Amino acid sequence: MTYQEVERLKLRLTKYNKQQFEEFCLYLSSSDLDTEKRNEIRDEILDHLLEGEKQGKGFQDLFGQNPREYTQQIVEQLPKSSLKEKITFALSILLISTIIIFSRSHNDSSVFVDLTLFSILSSAVIIGFFKLTKRFAFKSSIMSILILTLIIQVAGVLYYFLKILFINIS
Known about the structure:
Blueprint (H helix, E strand, L loop, with lengths): L2 H8 L4 H15 L5 H20 L4 H5 L3 H11 L5 H20 L5 H29 L4 H29 L1
Helix pairs in contact: 2-3, 2-5, 2-7, 6-7, 7-8
């Protein structure tokens, strides 16, 4: 299913089932899984939910009282993302970092420092985001938003001070 189809079908779900399905998808997306298999599982779960609702069943009726545990079991059985996917992801971060760095005016000595620091810190923030998303799936989203905001702020401050430090050293 395409993203648009999934979004359209989600509108048919009850509020609670939609929320649980979105938490399920969030947990899957933050796991190191093969993209194709992850999407197949997402589509299957959505189909089961839609069919279950026709019979008067909810998410917990279909998938158990502990949706997080159920999702973890699924994740353990699915193939992990390939080395090619991981390299593509890392290169996309580097490319985006490069575009951001070169879109601003710099002198030659600070470009290398900026590119290195920005790539490392943005990678750390993205990895932290995925880990937090997985940790807080099926839990309070306010706490995860606060922690993620704190991580981004700390990364920004760290970037600023490390940049000053490295430019003053060179």
